[in-house]
Amino acid sequence: MTRVLITDDDALVRAGLALMLGGSPDVEVVGEASNGAEAVEAAKAGGVDIVLMDLRMPVMDGIAATTAITALEDAPRVIVLTTFDADEYVVRALAAGANGFLLKDTPPAEIVDAIARVQAGEPMLSPTITEQLIRQVTDSTPHDRQASAALINELLTEREQEVARAVGAGSSNAEIAAELHMSVATVKAHISHIFTKLDATNRVQVAIRMHDAGLL
């Protein structure tokens, strides 16, 4: 069962999400937070697998909270809750380490599915959204791209670069496995190594680094 912390400054939103998620046998709502600071403290206390994170909140916003949570040892994964598709706040939160995003009007079944996918390490962004995000957060010069490409060539094996390019293209683990003729378990192992070597906490950050290097 995936343990979820709901973070939103609107009590009605929290109550609605808790009610929706409470009907799933695979999800347990273990707490609620009304601002980012409370979410960080709950994450530090442990026992949380996924944080559903609103972005615009008092005391500490979702971006600062996401940054703090993803820096924790054995950090829970963060899914951004947003009203607008790929706005500036979403871009900044994903760059800070969030693992995906959900629109607040997403149907309950899709929210549960998204939680399961993120918990399993699967991407939760369509290729179109990934492209939008990359365009908004990258502005590399040719010299920067050359330096980034050299660093990636130094850090990643040829096979890891193939996997990283597929991650950057928005492919799921199963799609990467089929494309590169390897098992899903092997794909997961490669992605884990890529995250470590590129100091990335999510697939969007891998895509951004590959784009910066001119390898997408």
Topology, please?
Blueprint: E1 2-7, H1 11-22, E2 27-33, H2 36-45, E3 50-54, H3 62-70, E4 77-82, H4 88-95, E5 100-103, H5 108-119, H6 127-137, H7 142-155, H8 158-168, H9 173-180, H10 184-198, H11 203-212
Parallel strand pairs: 1-2, 1-3, 3-4, 4-5
Describe this structure in words.
The chain is of the alpha/beta class and 216 residues long. It has two domains: 2-120, Response regulator (Rossmann fold); 135-212, Rossmann fold (3-Layer(aba) Sandwich). 56% of the residues lie in helices and 13% in strands. It contains eleven helices and five strands, in the order E-H-E-H-E-H-E-H-E-H-H-H-H-H-H-H. It has helices at residues 11-22, 36-45, 62-70, 88-95, 108-119, 127-137, 142-155, 158-168, 173-180, 184-198, 203-212, and strands spanning 2-7, 27-33, 50-54, 77-82, 100-103. The chain has a five-stranded parallel β-sheet with strand order 2-1-3-4-5, with helices on both faces. Helix 9 packs across helix 10 (184-198). The longest helix has 15 residues, at 184-198. GO terms for molecular function: DNA binding. This is Response regulator transcription factor. It comes from Aeromicrobium terrae. Residues 3-119 form the Response regulatory domain.
